[in-house]
Amino acid sequence: MTEDDVEGGTWDGERLATTACERCPALVDSRSQIVNGAGPADADLVFVGEAPGASEDEQGEPFVGRSGTVLDEELHDVGLDRADVRITNTVRCRPPENRDPHVEERENCRAYLARELAGIGPELVITLGKVPSEHLLGRDVAVTSEAGEIHEATVGEETWPVMICVHPAATLYDPSQGEVFAETLRAAADYAGDGGQSTLGSF
Ligand code: URA
User: How far is the CA of 151 from the centre of ligand 1 (A)?
Assistant: First the structure.
């Protein structure tokens, strides 16, 4: 058993999972369960979304609703499968009425994401949307114009290359985002395929 205490919660280092947490009162009330990351513990690519929605809260897995379908389809188009990558979120509990997680809630969950990334050691972290991009890069991010750019982000004690990407849900509301999403995933797949070298930089 590798479970240990994190302030306000517990972490299982073997499963890379938060096993209990009471740090965010509003989220403790709104969640039905904690939704941990899913996918290989040695994945080259780690996708970080915002927070679980209704389907994720119900099923206990990230990106299993409509956004997950978009992500799965695009992964498939670039020659990857959901089972090849790790998928996780900035915040592990469903916010009430699907609001964005508050900055304090993102910070409360950061230690878990730090441990997850440290356990995996990915080649590249891909942030899906504004919330994870701004959380990890610590600045305002214009995701559409910055999509595909790689910057470094320190999470916990380690620094990772982070590629900015639009959120898959954005492609449902604005089809022009579909091509941006596809390009970014292609670049991420190339990066991992090249052993961590960026072939495109930004586009
Ligand atoms: N949107 C997210 O950002 N994360 C999920 O897990 C599902 C939808």
Answer: 22
Q: What is the pLDDT of residue 198?
A: 54
**pLDDT, tens digit (0-9, with 9 covering 90-100), for 158-202:** 999 999 999 999 999 999 999 999 999 999 999 988 766 554 444
* 97: phi then psi, degrees, rounded to nearest 5: 50, 30
Q: What is the pTM of this model?
A: 0.95
The pick from 34, 59, 63, 172 for probing ligand 1's pocket by mutation, whose C-beta has the most ligand atoms within 8 angstroms, reads 63
The position carrying tokens 């991992």 is: 192
Q: For ligand 1, which residues put their CB under 6 angstroms from it?
A: 49-53, 56, 62-63, 65, 67, 89
- Ordered domains of the chain (ranges, CATH): 5-193 (3.40.470.10)
